[in-house]
Design brief:
The protein is mostly beta strands and about 70 residues long. The protein is built from no helices and 5 strands.
């Protein structure tokens, strides 16, 4: 199982640095990342990284599964 690189971010929790109205930015592991979500996310909300598409993280609301 990969724990480094972009794939290692899947399952981790991030914080929305901007409102995500389908797209925005999140902060994880000391870095800002472009992100997208299928549902609106407000700045400051916690999200879980569920996938990676190039340099964009796919996020969803909810708690991480402890990864």
């Amino acid at each position: 199982k990969t724990d480094t690189g972009q794939e290692g971010l899947i399952g981790k929790q991030a914080e929305a640095r901007s409102d995500l109205n389908l797209a925005g930015q999140v902060f994880v592991h000391g870095e800002n990342w472009n992100a997208r979500s299928s549902e609106p996310v407000h700045k400051g909300e916690k999200v879980t990284i569920i996938g990676v598409d190039g340099l964009t993280l796919i996020v969803g609301k909810g708690e991480s599964s402890g990864k």
